[in-house]
Amino acid sequence: MADLALPDAADVLVKVTAADERIRVLVVRCTGVVNEAQRRHQTSPLASVALGRALAGGLLLSAALMKDQGRLTIRVVGKGPLGGILVDAGHDGSVRGYVAHPDLDLPLTEGGLLDVGQAVGRNGFMYVTHDSGEATYTGVVELVSGELGDDFTHYLAHSEQIPAAVSLGTQISGEGEVDVAGGLLVQLLPGAGDEIAWRLEQNVKAMPPFSHLARAGADPYDIALSALGGFNATLVSRQEVRFHCQCSEERVHRALASLGSAELRAMIAEDGKAEVRCHFCNLHYQISAEQLGALAASLVGPGDDDVT
Ligand SMILES: [Zn+2]
Predict the structure, then answer these.
(1) 278 CA → ligand 1 middle, Å
(2) Would the pTM of this model clear 0.85, i.e. be above it?
């Protein structure tokens, strides 16, 4: 249900339909999400922009593709020095993610921009795994530019047969902070004829980039309307989005337990403890020798066969 009471500057995803539900526009503003990702992973400006685009794209695709529940995992595996991006986004508006080399820095492009295409690499693949809670499947496409917006558009067209355009923007301030982050996804729904497609394309071509509009203070709904000039638009939903990781001490203990009691006892003997880092949120979990011992003891019982 639409929550229209969110504060103006909150991280939100709005869903708007137009032309008798033959067009759908999703706009996400996730500046807080990307700031949080930058703080947790200590990403350089270049890595922040790449990760920011991937987080925004993950939220947009998840809202576009998943029904009432479920999550998408997006893996961008390019040959560039950034070394890969992983994002996990849910229909509930939660998202988390990381890049392999968060401190990467490269020369600016000739136009003075952070060179995301070079960082990600123009050769490689984008994998998108849908997890509905009941079944999973993965779609894959080759990267077309490594700039990510084009790559998400290409993914939707070629792996999902969805005619859409994805535009992403993350802007970093002179102090290296995330000024604005987000993006939009404009999609033609079944029944949209050539004329609607043509008019929508002209609108989108004439729009300033997302980050310009967002920096000027435009609300996500206003940004959706600027893509929909000349069409009757209806706000379907306005949902909060947030950086959220599902990791917990309990999950870490479960993962350790899966190693078996012999491995746990070896850890106690060698290090006297274990340290586990969650890649998604960079939280470090310290597990003491006593906790490892208790875990190992809980695994040894009648019929236990992990002692070789
Ligand atoms: Zn975590």
Answers:
(1) 5
(2) yes
